[in-house]
Structures are given as structure tokens and as C-alpha cells.
UniProtKB/TrEMBL annotation:
GO terms for cellular component: membrane. Pfam families: ABC_tran (PF00005), Wzt_C (PF14524). PROSITE patterns: ABC_TRANSPORTER_1 (PS00211), ABC_TRANSPORTER_2 (PS50893). CDD domains: ABC_KpsT_Wzt. GO terms for molecular function: ABC-type transporter activity; ATP binding; ATP hydrolysis activity. SMART domains: AAA. InterPro entries: AAA+_ATPase, ABC_transporter-like_ATP-bd, ABC_transporter-like_CS, ABC_transpr_TagH-like, Bact_Polysacc_Export_ATP-bd, P-loop_NTPase, Wzt_C. Keywords: ATP-binding, Nucleotide-binding, Transport. Belongs to the ABC transporter superfamily. This is Lipopolysaccharide transport system ATP-binding protein. It comes from Mesonia phycicola. Residues 31-260 form the ABC transporter domain.
Length: 407
């Protein structure tokens, strides 16, 4: 019964947590002086904004139990880092209450908590002491920390000479191997290589039953991999909160959508009149296809200068980080394209799209001849496309497969 109660124990609790900042340094300093003398922290005006102030975090509420992982997601400036700093005790909320029960390990900034002139070994002892461990307890774990961080050769070298990856490995090694009750992880894991990231997630799996984890990342497959609940933040407020991690990820992706045309090059021969995704469903302002649907794109170009032959169309799909992931087969002399004196129009179809879940953008380039020479037009981000699927995977493609029983 004691073990069951321990697993259900609430370790992190945020009640109406809010934090405001001032846009102007001089005004901020003046407000600080006034607050000291007026003891504003306890008066009824704590939720009132003064001139030039804004809410970095506003009315955040959640409970996190042992064995649960909370994902905090949102675009830059959403308030995630400010909330983490309040959870870690680096800054105090202007309103609301935060309750943290147990030892807290945090990786909220690259190299944070390390003394740069001390060695890696000395920093392990310092960080362990901050977490509340005795020297004997640290000595029992130090070899495991060094092995995990994979920096045996450099453990007695000053941390100021460590690479960013080495700092992350050491920081995560201390935070995880010390097995804190609460572990706070910011975007720092993005610095590590894939092998180390996978090792980190295996460690999180191992310690999660006895730990409450707050995890911040822009990598949605990572969030989907470890989080049991999620908060989508926007302009300091919670826009979505709950255990439906997949829905929050869809909403996060939808905020990347932008249909602004970005013309990179044009010789004046052509101009794009229309570009539409056919048979796509509009969800939160983003054209969405289900995984396995047909991708159909309608293009219409206006001809401004006479063309003697059908141009070549090069259509590329990129992920949300603008990495090319696929190219559609180019047209040839047998392709069905409507070509008149004033316009070019066609629909290009890709059957049963198998890109994995996420948001993609579409670029197009047009050249004068089928062989791809003599560029006429290039436009980036002409369309945004979201692929929906219940599964979140790391890889850019989720390929259809069939399992066959062996008789």
C-alpha cells in the first residue's frame, strides 16, 4: 500500500502561476524599487499590468505525479523557459503558487550549474551536493555518471574546455544517475548526437516510474515518445492541456502554416496564378491529408513571354525544418499538361502518400527545357501540407507494409 501511495504522490503542483516582465530596462528597475518599498508581492495588484509590462506566463495550472512526464511545447517566446525557471526556483512567480516535493534535477540551459574553472569530477560533487546528496552517496554513483557521460579521458579537465555535447552528457549524467524525484529537461538534448539521445531516453524510461519529469522540446517525436500529458503554450497561456499528446502536437504543427508566396527567382516569363491542394481538409487553417491519401496539387501559371515548348516543373517537399524530404517525378513529353498561348495548367498526383505525420511545405522551380536548363521561375513555400496519422515517428517516411504468417 505504501508503494502505491508513493506512485500516486503529487510532486509538482502549479496553481494559477503567472509572471510578468517589463519591456523597458529603466522602467523595470524603477518598478523593482517601488515594489521593494511597497511590498507588492503580497498586495491585490499583483495581477495588474503596469505600463510597458506584459505577461510572460499567465494562469498556468497543473499537477504532476510520480511516474508521469509533462511535455511543455510551443513556439519561441511562448513562455516555456520562464515557466521552467519558476519551477526550478530561479525566479519567483508574480502570482500563483508552485509546490515542488523532493529533490529536483534540472537541465534547463547548456552548462548551467557548472563552475567553468572546476573539473568535470569536481562539478559532479558540487551538483550532487546541491541536489542534497552526501559525499558518500556521490562517490557511490560517480563512476556510473562518468561512464554514462562517456568523458572518462576529460573528467579531470576544466569544464570551460568542454564542447557543448560534453557539457550536455555530463549534465544529463548527473541529473539522471542521481535519480532525483523531479527531473526538468529543456531543449538541451538537441545538442547531443543520436546515439546519446537514444541512451538518454532509455534512462528516462528507467527512472520515470520513480520520478516526475518536465520535458521541453521542439522535437515532436521526442515529446510523443516520453510524455504522458502535455501543455501547448502560446503567448504565456495554455492553449491546450491534457493527456491527448497527439492532438496537442497537431495543434503545434498547425501554427507553422504560412501560405505566403516567396518568389526567389523569375525571368519574367511566368507567374504563378493558382496553387491548390485538392481533396485536402482544412484543419486549424492548414490543408490536411490523412496518411495514405492521394496528394493532388493544382497549378496554374500565366505566360508573360512567349514559350515555344512546355517547361520542366520541379516540385519538392520539405519538412518543418526546411529539409528536403521528397521530390515528385518531373514531367516529360508525354505528361498531360494544358498549354496555351496565355497559360499553363495541370494537376500533379502522387498516389497514397506515405510521409510520416507532420507539417510539410512545397517548393517549385520551373526551367525552360525538359532537360532542366535555363531557369524561369522558383518559388518557395507556396503551400503548407499536414499529414495526419495516429503514430508519431522519427523517420520522414512511414511505409505501408504487410505481415504474412508462415505456414
Amino acid at each position: 500500500m505504501k508503494e502505491v501511495a508513493k506512485k500516486n504522490e503529487i510532486l509538482v503542483e502549479a496553481e494559477g502561476v503567472s509572471k510578468k516582465f517589463c519591456k523597458d530596462l529603466k522602467t523595470s528597475l524603477w518598478y523593482g524599487v517601488k515594489d521593494i518599498f511597497a511590498n507588492v508581492g503580497g498586495n491585490k495588484k499583483e495581477r495588474v499590468l503596469r505600463p510597458k509590462e506584459f505577461w510572460a506566463v499567465k494562469d498556468i495550472n497543473f499537477q504532476l505525479r510520480r511516474g508521469e512526464c509533462l511535455g511543455l511545447v510551443g513556439h519561441n517566446g511562448a513562455g516555456k523557459s520562464t515557466l521552467l525557471k519558476m519551477l526550478n526556483g530561479l525566479i519567483n512567480p508574480d502570482a500563483g503558487k508552485i509546490t515542488m516535493r523532493g529533490r529536483v534535477g534540472a537541465l534547463i540551459e547548456l552548462g548551467a550549474g557548472f563552475n567553468p574553472i572546476l573539473t568535470g569530477r569536481e562539478n559532479i560533487y558540487n551538483n550532487g551536493a546541491i541536489l542534497g546528496f552526501t559525499r558518500k552517496e556521490i562517490e557511490e554513483k560517480i563512476e556510473a555518471i562518468i561512464d554514462f557521460a562517456e568523458i572518462e579521458e576529460f573528467i579531470d579537465m576544466p569544464v570551460q574546455h568542454y564542447s557543448s555535447g560534453m557539457k550536455v552528457r555530463l549534465g544529463f549524467g548527473v541529473a539522471a544517475q542521481m535519480e532525483p524525484d523531479i527531473l526538468i529537461i529543456d531543449e538541451v538534448l538537441a545538442v547531443g548526437d543520436l546515439g546519446f539521445i537514444l541512451k538518454c531516453f532509455k534512462t528516462i524510461d528507467d527512472i520515470l516510474p520513480n520520478t516526475a519529469v518536465v520535458f521541453v522540446s521542439h522535437n515532436m517525436p521526442m515529446v510523443s515518445r516520453v510524455c504522458t500529458q502535455i501543455i501547448l503554450m502560446e503567448k504565456g497561456q495554455s492553449k491546450f492541456q491534457g493527456t491527448d499528446v497527439s492532438k496537442a502536437i497537431d495543434l503545434y504543427y498547425s501554427r507553422f502554416s504560412s501560405n505566403e508566396k516567396n518568389e526567389i527567382f523569375s525571368d519574367g516569363s511566368l507567374s504563378l496564378e493558382e496553387a491548390d491542394l485538392l481533396e485536402a481538409v482544412n484543419i486549424e487553417g492548414v490543408s490536411t491529408l490523412k496518411w495514405g491519401d492521394d496528394l493532388k496539387i493544382h497549378f496554374k501559371f500565366k505566360i508573360n513571354k512567349k514559350l515555344t515548348s512546355t517547361p520542366r516543373f520541379n516540385i519538392v517537399l520539405l519538412d518543418k525544418e526546411q529539409r528536403p524530404v521528397a521530390i515528385l517525378e518531373n514531367n516529360n513529353k508525354d505528361s498531360a499538361i494544358s498549354f496555351s498561348e496565355n497559360s499553363i495548367e495541370f494537376i500533379i498526383t502522387h498516389k497514397e502518400i506515405q510521409l510520416s505525420k507532420g507539417v510539410y511545405s512545397i517548393n517549385i522551380s520551373v526551367s525552360k527545357k525538359i532537360d532542366g536548363r535555363h531557369p524561369l521561375l522558383r518559388i518557395n513555400n507556396i503551400l503548407s501540407l499536414q499529414i495526419s496519422h495516429p503514430e508519431e515517428v522519427w523517420q520522414p517516411f512511414l511505409l505501408k507494409s504487410k505481415f504474412t504468417e508462415i505456414n
